[in-house]
Specification:
The chain is an alpha/beta fold. 43% of the residues lie in helices and 20% in strands. It contains 14 helices and 16 strands. The strands form 4 sheets. It has an 8-stranded mixed β-barrel with strand order 7-8-10-11-12-13-14-15, surrounded by 4 helices. A two-stranded antiparallel ribbon has the order 1-2. Helix 3 crosses helix 4 and helix 6 runs parallel beside helix 8. The protein is elongated and about 75 Å long. The site of one magnesium ion has 4 residues, from loops.
Length: 381
């Protein structure tokens, strides 16, 4: 169907341009149109409009209506001056701008666009090499049993040690990694590194046998071979499946589609645990909880932050905990920063906690200190 669609798009481009214009496919879903000898930008704009209209018409592919959105970047060359390579690069810069503009989907190249885009492209190119250059690091934040205050495991949180920018937090590069697909190798590296670390800690601290929690992004979750990948990582690192928890967010399972649910079930049959992260921030529908095969939900830290001062949060958190427990789901509270919050969550019978009150996310060496020689040290303090 993809090939049919590409052919149909190519036809539209050809019918809407003149004999003397050149239409080319640049690989993937990118096309280029070269307009020869035009008198003004207006002509290019008009053509872009015309193409936009024609591409908005549904395409009939195998009897199905397929709808497209095309971003268009325009660059104008000066005859005899413009280098074809530069012109294509300028058009691509404009295209990237056009894609980011969700109203018109069109942009004409201006010199100022270059520095911004180049910076982004540099960042992206750097990110491509981050794994092989050994620049990714995992920090680990203790997960604590709220009744005993003992460490039961860790959440692996990725950081990027950039040579010029310093330690880059995940929210500054995970979205770009998602967009570019780099999240797949990065996510695999995170899973493998975290599992290997957890296995090593289990061997070194048999009294704790800490579990490991790893965040999965939407794109990772959509990989058809995710289960196989996880199985292979468990086998090669020797970490028991029951010691691995996978954190997904609501956006991953928002539609509660059969496909998402069966993917979750398949993961669970491997023996790993499933956690719904940031609960309460998305379109949190309580009906998810009934449909999804979950072991734990993590109440978002915004609820925990307002727990003691904001009267409205207490009944919400209380209700979420009792609902989850009624469904046989455990509850972790994120972002515990004070003893009052911890005490309050304890009273509400919340199972586990995580937050700066116990410990911030730390490099592996520092974690060994907090596990202590007897392997049973309490996390607080
Ligand atoms: P998250 O999974 O909800 O992780 C919890 C975030 O809250 C972490 O931020 C953690 O450092 C922070 N945090 C923990 N306790 C406290 C507290 O008491 N107060 C406050 N204010 N913050 C606290 P971090 O490490 O910056 O990670 C941010 C997000 O980036 C994570 O949110 C997760 O969604 C994503 N992320 C991190 N590592 C990975 C990864 O390996 N893969 C993917 N796909 N996403 C990741
Ligand atoms: Mg998480
Ligand atoms: Mg979270």
């Amino acid at each position: 169907m993809g090939d049919e669609l590409l052919k149909a798009v190519a036809e539209q481009l050809q019918t809407n341009t003149r004999e003397i214009d050149t239409v080319a496919r640049f690989g993937g879903d990118q096309f280029a149109v070269m307009l020869d000898g035009i008198a003004s930008t207006g002509v290019a704009r008009e053509l872009a409009e015309r193409l936009d209209m024609s591409l908005r018409e549904p395409f009939d592919i195998d009897g199905r209506d397929v709808f497209l959105n095309a971003g268009m970047g325009i660059a104008i060359g000066v005859p005899g001056v413009a280098d074809p390579g530069d012109l294509l690069r300028d058009a691509e810069v404009a295209l990237n701008r056009a894609k980011a503009d969700h109203t018109t989907h069109q942009a004409i190249f201006e010199p100022g666009m270059n520095s911004e885009t180049l910076e982004r492209l540099d960042f992206e190119a750097d990110l491509r090499h981050a794994i092989e250059r050994d620049q990714l690091v995992l920090h680990y934040q203790p997960l604590v049993d709220l009744t005993s205050d003992r460490v039961v495991g860790f959440e692996a949180l990725v950081r990027w040690q950039h040579p010029e920018r310093g330690l880059v937090p995940p929210l500054a590069f995970i979205p770009l990694a998602e967009e570019t697909g780099l999240i797949l190798p990065i996510g695999r590296w995170v899973l493998e590194t975290a599992c290997r670390q957890a296995q090593a800690w289990q061997a070194k601290f048999p009294g704790v046998r800490p579990m490991m929690s790893v965040n999965l992004s939407a794109r990772q979750f959509a990989q058809p071979d995710l289960g196989g990948q996880i199985q292979a990582i468990l086998a090669s690192t020797g970490l028991p499946a029951a010691s691995l928890e996978l954190e997904i967010t609501e956006s991953v399972v928002m539609d509660s589609s059969e496909k998402a649910i069966s993917a979750l079930r398949a993961l669970r049959t491997l023996g790993v645990k499933l956690v719904l992260d940031d609960f309460g921030t998305g379109y949190s529908s309580l009906s998810y909880l009934k449909h999804l095969p979950l072991d734990t939900i993590k109440i978002d830290r915004s609820f925990v932050a307002g727990l003691v001062d904001d009267d409205a949060n207490l009944p919400i958190v209380e209700a979420v905990i009792s609902l989850a427990h009624g469904l046989g789901i455990e509850v972790t509270a994120e972002g515990i920063e004070t003893a009052e919050q911890r005490d309050c969550l304890r009273r509400l019978a919340c199972d586990r906690g995580q937050g700066n009150y116990y410990a911030v996310a730390l490099p592996a060496e520092r974690i060994e200190e907090c596990l202590g020689p007897d392997g049973l040290a309490s996390a607080a303090g």
